[in-house]
Amino acid sequence: MKLIKKLGIAVLIFLIVISIAGMFFPSKVEIERSIIINAPASIVFEKVNVLKNWEDWSPWKKMDPEMKNVYNDIPSGKGASFSWKGPKSGEGSLIIAESFPDSLIVTDLEFKGEGHSDSDFKFSALSENSTKVSWSFQSEVGNNPFIRIFWSIGTRMMKQSFDDGLKSIKDISEKNK
User: Which of 157, 118, 162 is CA-nearest to residue 140?
Assistant: First the structure.
């Protein structure tokens, strides 16, 4: 009985320490990754603006090949959207909130049970056949210290996923120029 009591106290102390430490983690997650692609901005832009193209480069589609996407009737640009569901990727939806040809795409993301996030893609033509693409993500994670810690750890994985996605966009775009 004393062992159970000591174990219970140890668990309680651990939870208190994690709760206090978690309050010092940021309440907002911000990620931005970039890559230079040797292809015109118009070709690169199309890989993101047409949502069905995401199946060719999305790091989450590669991670979860069983993921099912359902698209609305707008194939690209402002108002285009899809929802997804998969055993590894969970459930959510994405809508293109703004689309400015060859320069900017702003998306709104909803993760079922996780809340809302914003993401955008910026396309900067460096020359006729070279484009810098920056992909950013922002999300308010709130005051829950455990969620703050989770997102701080998960940010590293998100950065890798963004790098993988940008690399795939680069490979596809450079083949199609």
Answer: 118
CB 66 within 8 Å of CB 84: no
- Residues 123, 103 contacting (CB under 8 angstroms): yes
Nearest to 49 by CA among 92, 103, 89: 103
pLDDT confidence of residue 109: 92
| C-beta separation of 85 from 67 below 8 A | yes
Burial class (CB in 10 A: 0-12, 13-18, 19+), 82: middle
At which residue do the structure tokens 């939806």 appear?
93
With cut-offs at 50, 70 and 90, classify the pLDDT of residue 15. confident
> What is the Cα–Cα distance from 38 to 129, expressed in whole angstroms?
6
| DSSP strands (E only) in 101-155 | 104-111, 115-127, 130-140
Let me know if 69 is exposed, middle or buried by CB neighbors in 10 A (0-12, 13-18, 19+). middle
Give the dihedral sign, CA 133/83/98/54. positive
Name the residue type at position 83.
Answer: S
pTM of the model: 0.82
Domains of the chain: 2-175 (3.30.530.20)
